[in-house]
Amino acid sequence: MSDFAVEGVWAAPGRVNVIGEHTDYNNGFVLPIAIPHTTRASVGRRTDGLLRLASSHAGAEPLELAVADLAPGTLSGWTAYPAGVVWALRAAGYDVSGGADIRIDSDVPVGAGLSSSAALSCAVALAFNDLHDLGCSRVELARIAQQVENDFLGLPTGMLDQMASLGCTAGHAWFLDFRDLTGSHIPFDCEGVGLRLLVIDTRAAHALVDGGYAARRASCEEAALLLGVPSLREITDPDAALAALPAGPLRMRVRHVLTENVRVLRTVAALRAGDVRAIGPELTASHASMRDDYTISCPELDTAVDTASAAGALGARLIGGGFGGSAIALVEEDDSGAVAEAVEKTFAARGFTTPRFFEAIPSAGARRLS
Ligand code: ADP
Ligand code: MG
After folding, report:
1. Which of 176, 265, 280, 295 has the most CB atoms lying inside 10 A of its own CB?
2. How far apart are the C-alpha atoms of 104 and 91, rounded to whole Å?
3. By C-alpha distance, which of 111, 209, 216 is closest to 155?
């Protein structure tokens, strides 16, 4: 590793989605922030067609392989993310066949639902864009990074994480419309009004590969087909659409997506009006919808949300794909310690792994550091 060539260092952050969950692949609304935690990629170009990969993350073994050998399904584990970026760039027609040395260092919690995977692929994608003068826009880079998960790894994830990591700005939440990928940056200052956005990492492992995420996505596609719309976003009469679907899981899934889009709009309206506290009930309603209609919560996430609310949080919800990972809680600054303490105590009483806490401060998107 000591002989790794380094021409520059690029950083990409993890993300917290304030609200708008499982709406990205339904052409809906999302509202992410980038967090201060970043993944750094130190990258240098090679000319011999080799890709050399190393990460300081515990258990991440280094790997050396030929760029020409990259193909979907050939790699699993952490190296699939940086190698997948090189594969996706080549698949998009960019000449990056010379290879590279890529060294990864990160303080984004891994597997906690804060999108360490997108931080990793986005840092590498931005590095290649700069080093090879590819001229890709941030949206194009997000697509490349998404192809890493969808096509190289076979995970049917949406593009929220990659867009957030590449496009968010400090001090703002990004209101994004996935129908056309237009958006606006909305000032989001919790500290300025005496609030904290607390992240509760439940430490319950979330596994995208388990199929729950793919099943939800498939249900949405099935419902859109039944309703004769290109995507759930194109539904103009929500009540009629719900009534037209068979009672049961399909109707519940669609109800989550339709109501979640409305909650994002309400949250954005509250932030635009400068009323951060007013978003609390939207967060809690989002959680209930994911728990009851989308059925992607788990005992740890429900415990985190319920305990935080009982201890005074203005609102709380699971974030990310679900089935584990992190929750957020909007809390008064003065209650922040008590909320964390209550969650920790309840986790201990229920025999769950000790949770971790972070503060989510809206931070800058991906950038070159040196
Ligand atoms: P999340 O994105 O929520 O953190 P994922 O399961 O989508 O969870 O991605 C986690 C995976 O990303 C890890 O298992 C590992 O393969 C890869 N990864 C993320 N950050 C790093 C890193 N710093 N070093 C090596 N691998 C990483
Ligand atoms: Mg991920």
Report:
1. 176
2. 23
3. 209
CA of 208 to the centre of ligand 2 (A): 8
The span from the CA of 341 to the CA of 54, in Å, is 37
pLDDT tens for 316-342 read 999 999 999 999 999 999 999 999 999
Outline where the chain has alpha helix (H).
80-91, 116-131, 138-147, 160-167, 212-227, 238-244, 249-272, 280-292, 299-310, 336-349
CB 291 within 8 A of CB 302: yes
The pLDDT tens digits for 338-355 are: 999 999 999 999 999 999
Q: Which two tokens stand for residue 320?
A: 């990310």
Topology at the third CATH level for domain 189-359: Alpha-Beta Plaits (3.30.70)
Query: pTM of the entire structure?
Result: 0.97
> Residues with beta carbon inside 6 Å of ligand 1?
39, 55, 57, 60, 77-78, 81, 104, 106, 110-117, 120, 208, 325
Please say if 306 is a catalytic residue: no
**Domain boundary assignment for the chain:** 8-185, 189-359
Task: Supply the CATH classification number for the domain 8-185.
Answer: 3.30.230.10
